[in-house]
């Protein structure tokens, strides 16, 4: 959500900021609607003052035996204006709610992912002779079943069995333990369904309603634990967080994948249901830049500990998500695909979500909107893919990364 006062003060700057995202100017429409709404509110206030004056005048004339019909008719007309619904306010809020966050000045310009900037890289894009993709490995082992999942639920689902199911569980537990014991995050068990206020506050509504699954009673299945974790303080004034509030959760995530027809149809890369460890931070404005670097570092350590090859990418203006002011993607090298694929996305939303949630803290006499950050710590399903492809052996077996072996009963190999 955007501050209408800031738009009034610098409309040209606001249009220029949105132009970086490839958007046409919008402030003329915003300011026209804002002016119309303020004029309506002024008329209501004037009508209320006039009605109060009329009430006194009518009382005086009645006591003097004078005819008050005209004054009473005027008072009735004023009452209709006073009681009229402010239909312009919701229209203005809806218009503002559909506009993306303002990008940080450092975000590189560019139309799409081809303009993203690689900031650093850990390991090389290794070539494994005869490397197979994860679904080829899993199906050959008899531990990954897409056909059975399709019979049960339809396309874009998978059933993992035996050691692969345990490996997926091990990945999630390893990530949670790392983030809670060494990175200072508080583990949370959160609802997998949220209401409109939580989905709106974390910028998933109204723009992304088609990407979500909705229940028959009007709740939304979470696309990521970012939604319930960030909304923990929805609508509240919290104590000033002198240290960032850090939360993490391992949850199933649900996405309709609207608009992704034909993309990544084989395997587990793009599914309707998947596991993810999420990291969320709530902090003061002056702390969010450093927290963004720290959060991304936490996700990077996960990949390093798993023995994966990864790189950090600074997303350009045309590829940065709706609610983010800046985003780092972590991409992992998949030898089977022979490609870098996103496995984590860490974003600083500045006060964008704080305004939508109306979450603030007191600093003296001032009320300040919180800054919120979110990041994958990481996507468990994609980590499973990366482990399978990176640690595959020529005979089709998979070496279990040493850091996961305590979670696998000491086993060193699947196959």
TrEMBL record:
Keywords: Aminoacyl-tRNA synthetase, ATP-binding, Cytoplasm, Ligase, Nucleotide-binding, Protein biosynthesis. It comes from Rhodovarius crocodyli. It is an enzyme of class 6 (ligase). Consists of two distinct domains, a catalytic core and a N-terminal extension that is involved in tRNA binding. Belongs to the class-II aminoacyl-tRNA synthetase family. Type-1 seryl-tRNA synthetase subfamily. Residues 166-401 form the Aminoacyl-transfer RNA synthetases class-II family profile domain. One of its GO terms (molecular function) is serine-tRNA ligase activity. It comes from the Bacteria. SUPFAM superfamilies: Class II aaRS and biotin synthetases (SSF55681), tRNA-binding arm (SSF46589). This is Serine--tRNA ligase. It holds the Pfam family tRNA-synt_2b.
């Amino acid at each position: 959500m955007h501050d209408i006062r800031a738009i009034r003060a610098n409309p040209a700057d606001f249009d220029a900021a949105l132009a970086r995202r490839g958007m046409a100017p919008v402030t003329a429409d915003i300011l026209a609607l804002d002016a119309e709404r303020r004029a309506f509110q002024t008329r209501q206030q004037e009508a209320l003052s006039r009605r109060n004056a009329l009430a006194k005048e009518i009382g005086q004339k009645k006591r003097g035996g004078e005819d008050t019909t005209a004054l009473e008719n005027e008072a009735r007309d004023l009452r209709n204006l006073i009681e009229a619904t402010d239909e312009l306010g919701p229209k203005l809020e809806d218009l503002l709610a559909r506009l993306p966050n303002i990008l940080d000045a450092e975000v590189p310009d560019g139309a799409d992912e081809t303009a993203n900037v690689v900031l650093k890289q850990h390991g090389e894009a290794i070539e494994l002779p005869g490397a197979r993709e994860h679904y080829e490995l899993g199906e050959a082992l008899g531990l990954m079943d897409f056909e059975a999942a399709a019979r049960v639920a339809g396309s874009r689902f998978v059933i993992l069995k035996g050691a692969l199911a345990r490996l997926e569980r091990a990945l999630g537990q390893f990530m949670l333990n790392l983030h809670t014991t060494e990175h200072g995050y508080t583990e949370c068990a959160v609802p997998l369904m949220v209401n409109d206020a939580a989905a709106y506050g974390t910028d998933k509504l109204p723009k992304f309603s088609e990407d979500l699954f909705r229940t028959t009673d009007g709740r939304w299945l979470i696309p990521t634990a970012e939604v319930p974790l960030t909304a923990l303080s929805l609508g509240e004034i919290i104590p000033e967080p002198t240290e960032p509030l850090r939360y993490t959760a391992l949850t199933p995530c649900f996405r309709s994948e609207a608009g992704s027809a034909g993309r990544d149809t084989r395997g587990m890369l793009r599914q309707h249901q998947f596991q993810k460890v999420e990291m969320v931070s709530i902090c003061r404005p002056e702390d969010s830049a450093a927290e963004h670097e720290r959060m991304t570092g936490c996700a990077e350590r996960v990949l390093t500990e798993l023995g994966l090859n990864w790189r950090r990418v600074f997303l350009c203006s045309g590829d940065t998500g709706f609610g983010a002011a800046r985003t780092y993607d972590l991409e992992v090298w998949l030898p089977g695909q022979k490609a870098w694929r996103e496995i984590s996305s860490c974003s600083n939303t500045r006060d964008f979500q704080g305004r939508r949630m109306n979450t603030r803290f007191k600093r003296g006499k001032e009320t300040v909107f919180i800054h919120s950050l979110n990041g994958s710590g990481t996507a468990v399903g994609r980590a499973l893919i990366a482990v399978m492809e990176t640690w595959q052996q020529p005979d089709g077996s998979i070496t279990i990364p040493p850091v996961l072996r305590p979670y696998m009963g000491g086993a060193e190999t699947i196959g």
